Fold Biosynthetic peptidoglycan transglycosylase.
Amino acid sequence: MAAKKPTPKKPTAGKSKPASKKSNRSWGQKIKWFFIKAALWFFGISIVWVVILKYVPVFFTPLMVIRVIENKMSDKEVYFDHNWEPIEKISKNLQKAVIASEDGTFLYHNGFDFKALQKAYKSNERGRRIRGGSTISQQTAKNVFLWQGKSYFRKGLEAYFTVLIEIIWGKERIMEVYLNSIEMGDGVYGAYAATEYWYRRDASSLTPMQAAGIAAILPNPRKFKATGSSSYINRRKERIVREMRAVGKINYDGK
């Protein structure tokens, strides 16, 4: 009796592993390209944005919007004063004062003062608080393009925009935007509004002591006063005036 030939097994339905791998690879590729495209769009838009603001006045910043919302939510009076003033009409005394107070190496560094950053880091490790290590360039990048905060993500973006404005804007434009955008009182932004608010005079006519008064309150302009100041602010004013002499002639071209 002849042995029966074994019937070949029918392939079981649905061996889908290769398809699944292909599907996974497909999704992986899609996610990868999504992030690549998002990064390219971000770089492109951010560079164009920085180039535009090299020539166009900065009329508002994220901080200005945040302060208005904070006051609205707290049922406080919303006071807002900001006018753009070309750097040619801003007192050299005020320019020297903020350099002396906030960033003594502003005219020479490339956006970052690594010695100041190291000093701030060591001080924070010991639990002490001193003036932060951020340069005028970093503060400008944060004020104009970003939000307030201390996350590593925001710090990374701050470093990125600092590099961009140093390359595209240059020192004089950075100083111009800085002096037109920083908070110089509660609801007071920029040199024009600050000199009018604190001294009832034009931004071009500040004396060294008046300029030092504005620079002295920058660590906390909503708490401190440039006129009728506390003894702490008066001491800061005197120190800033002394350091302004060391700044000497301001040369933004670095020549």
